[in-house]
Specification:
Blueprint lengths: L3 E3 L3 H6 L1 H17 L1 E5 L9 H12 L5 E7 L11 E6 L2 H11 L2 E4 L2 E7 H8 L35 E6 L2 E7 L7 E7 L7 E2 L6 E5 L2 E6 L4 E7 L5 E4 L5 E5 L15 E5 L4 E6 L13 E3 L5 E6 L2 E6 L4 E2 L5 E2 L5 E4 L5 E6 L7 E7 L4 E8 L2 E8 L5 E9 L6 E9 L7 E5 L5 E7 L5 E7 L5 E7 L6 E9 L3 E4 L5 E6 L6 E6 L4 E7 L5 E4 L5 E6 L9 E6 L4 E6 L5 E4 L9 H9 L1 H40 L38
Antiparallel strand pairs: 1-9, 2-4, 2-6, 3-4, 5-6, 7-8, 7-43, 8-9, 10-11, 11-12, 12-13, 14-15, 15-16, 16-17, 18-19, 19-20, 20-21, 20-22, 23-24, 24-25, 25-26, 27-28, 28-29, 29-30, 31-32, 32-33, 33-34, 35-36, 36-37, 37-38, 39-40, 40-41, 41-42
Helix pairs in contact: 2-4, 2-5
Protein name: Eukaryotic translation initiation factor 3 subunit B
Pfam family, one: eIF2A
Organism: Galdieria sulphuraria (Red alga)
Length: about 675
């Protein structure tokens, strides 16, 4: 049985019969989800039995592994088959693929296979013959005294951040800046059947299950709400965490047009289904997220054929009862700080490609820019919504190669001026990244990623201003810190985890290091620490994570079997005004002294605690020797004296003022 373990309430959980019952039920459902029932199998005699099994195994091994004893075709007393088969896969995901891809599979002219999971069959068998109206979802309690404090983690006295890792278990840790090993906050086996995720502001933790998704939070990590949507593959939260959208890849031909189940928009607080939509066909390319939310959660938009459909929230009614007709539209993005949609259209005939900005809900066109000889366009909003970058892949005159072209829109200036930045034909652009809370951006480019260049620019003046470049760097990804102008230049994937920690303000390389074969990097919310990690799928022997300081010093490293995921917990936006933030920065020295004193006290406490633990172990050893009639004299040769003490010396460096005087004789 899989149990949840927490440092605070493990004993309580073990005594909670409801919790144990739910855990057992969840495990049973997972086992049932691994098996599929195949009906309409040919009824044959015993002499053709082995051939039938071979054919079925060949068909169903297309989607997942089938063990030697995982295929069962029942026979009657005459050894004739009964017309169905039971197949067990290694994981529920493989069984789901079998249902989605092999249901209605034409085995021959007379037999079309029907495939369902054993869990679905169990539900049908145990369905009551009398109709019972569904119970309403349980709403998160509105009474403050009974509602869990969803922001309790922000009240940590030391202001620590949390992170989540996933391996054979899913674990949440506290991270301390003093070099103390991460402290386990909560751990649970089989908490999620796919990757876990935080909501945008860190309020909720999201888990995947065969039946749908669930959100968790509060000081005891309670399950706050369930969203029943069978076999969910992807989800997305709205920026303010009021709504979420889920998608399960149900083919529209099998969906119910009157009550679609492929894509569902949910209200988070109540678990209420606001509206369902049909999804794309299986042979269509899926661009996720399919629904994109406005920054205040007042609207949500969807790209449809030659149009954008915008819906009001929470009513989910089409804005002005009509979609915005935009011929050949390819993609759109909401501004992260304004009710503005940016979209682009490709070249059609003699008409150039276009990038357009539209204000919502008025649908007023704010700006349009034509771009010529374009193959593709990517839209990058700056975090504060001040700028929009359009990276255009332009075709050369010969149409045989491409070059990068950047169009920068100054959203807050009158008439939204646009500036252009071009790169040469042979210079491949590997990455583009805005400074999250600033006016700068960086571009990694070159003819070879192992010796790429990184150029830094500023939008602070009236024109794009070139700042400086770094050359001959193994870089294909750029990671800006949330604040203070620090950046990690990373060579991921084929570049095997080369890392450079750079101070853009001082134009100074602080350190260069390597995390071999790492695939990703992520800054914590404070911008003081950055984590890199290697999943099990990339390196089975050395999978795990490393946490670094902003200047590139390794703080903590963990190698974990079956490690697959690392995520810092996001923080909500500051509630302090700009004036209050300035006041704090002005008095930062007084705060700093207080916190440094607290840090020193904590260090001393840890040292004394370690010394006490060592003394406790020595006393226990002596007591054991006395109990067996021995003493510790034979072991004193290791230290050379009867009793040893360990003195912990703290080395501090003090910079003394030095003056040089020249005295005339």
């Amino acid at each position: 049985m899989s149990l949840a373990v927490t440092s605070r309430n493990a004993s309580e959980l073990l005594k909670d019969s409801q919790f144990l019952e739910e855990e057992q039920k969840r495990i049973e459902q997972r086992e049932l989800s691994r098996a599929v029932i195949v009906s309409n199998v040919p009824k044959i005699t015993v002499d053709k039995y082995e051939k039938l099994c071979t054919v079925l195994r060949k068909v169903f091994q297309q989607v997942g592994n089938i063990g030697s004893d995982a295929l069962w075709v029942p026979q009657d007393e005459n050894k004739d088959t009964k017309g169905f088969a039971l197949i067990t896969y290694d994981t529920p995901e493989e069984a789901l693929k079998a249902v989605l891809q092999l249901n209605e599979y034409p085995l021959d002219k007379n037999h079309t296979l029907q495939v369902k999971t054993l869990l679905d069959i169990e539900r049908i068998v145990h369905t009551s013959e009398t109709f019972e109206p569904p119970s309403l979802p349980i709403e998160i309690p509105t009474d403050p005294s009974s509602r869990p404090n969803l922001f309790s983690w922000l009240l940590d006295e030391r202001g620590r951040d949390q992170f989540m890792i996933r391996h054979e278990e899913t674990e949440i840790y506290w991270f301390d800046s003093l070099g103390i090993p991460p402290q386990l906050e909560y751990s649970r086996m089989n908490w999620t059947e796919a990757d876990g995720y935080w909501s945008p502001r860190g309020t909720y933790f999201v888990t995947f299950h065969i039946q749908g998704i669930a959100i968790w939070g509060g000081p005891k990590w309670e399950r706050l709400m369930r969203f029943p949507h069978s076999h969910v593959k992807k989800f997305d939260f709205s920026p303010c965490e009021n709504y979420l959208v889920t998608w399960n890849d149900l083919d529209p031909e099998r969906d119910n047009p009157k009550d679609p189940e492929c894509i569902i928009i949910w209200e988070v607080a109540t678990g209420r289904k606001l509206r369902g939509f049909l999804g794309p066909k299986h042979d269509e390319k899926v661009a996720w997220p399919m629904f994109k939310f406005q920054y205040k959660d007042e609207m949500v938009a969807r790209l449809v054929e030659n149009a954008i459909s915008v819906y009001t929230l929470p009513e989910m009614t089409l804005l002005d009862k009509r979609s915005m007709k935009i011929p050949y539209i390819r993609d759109f993005q909401w501004s992260p700080a304004d009710s503005i949609i940016a979209y682009w259209q490709p070249e059609v005939g003699n008409n150039p490609a276009k990038v357009t900005l539209v204000e919502m809900p008025s649908r007023k066109e704010l700006r349009q820019k034509a771009v010529y000889s374009v193959a593709d366009i990517e839209l990058y909003w700056q975090q504060n919504g001040k700028y929009l970058c359009c990276k255009a892949s332009r075709l050369t005159k010969s149409k045989k190669s491409r070059l990068a072209n950047f169009e920068f829109f100054r959203i807050r200036q009158k008439e939204i001026p646009v500036e252009v930045l071009e790169y040469k034909e042979k210079e491949v652009v590997y990455d583009f990244a805005w400074e999250p809370d600033g006016d700068r951006f960086a571009i990694a480019y070159g003819d070879n990623a192992s010796r790429a260049s990184v150029a830094f620019y500023s939008m602070e003046d009236t024109q794009v201003k070139y700042l400086f470049s770094l050359t001959q760097r193994p870089v294909n990804r750029i990671f800006w810190a949330p604040q203070n102008g620090f950046v990690v230049l990373a060579g991921l994937g084929s570049l095997n985890g080369q890392l450079e920690f750079y101070n853009v303000n001082e134009q100074e390389s602080m350190n260069q290091s390597e995390h071999f074969m790492c695939t990703n990097a992520e800054w914590d919310a404070s911008g003081r620490f950055v984590a890199t990690w290697v999943p099990y799928s990339r390196n089975k022997m050395e999978c795990g994570y490393i946490i670094w300081t902003f200047y590139g010093k390794e703080v903590y490293q963990a190698t974990i079997s079956m490690f697959s995921q690392f995520l810092w917990r996001p923080r909500p936006e500051w509630l302090l005004s700009k004036e209050q933030q300035k006041k704090i920065k002005k008095n930062l020295k007084s705060y700093r002294e207080r916190y440094e004193r607290e840090d020193q006290e904590l260090k001393e406490m840890r040292r004394s605690g370690k010394a006490a633990e060592r003394k406790k172990l020595r006393d226990a050893w002596k007591q054991y020797l006395q109990s067996i009639g021995e003493d510790d004299k034979p072991f004193q040769w290791m230290s050379g004296k009867k009793e040893t003490t360990e003195e912990i010396v703290e080395i501090t460096e003090e910079l003394l003022e030095f003056k040089e005087e020249i005295i005339d004789k």
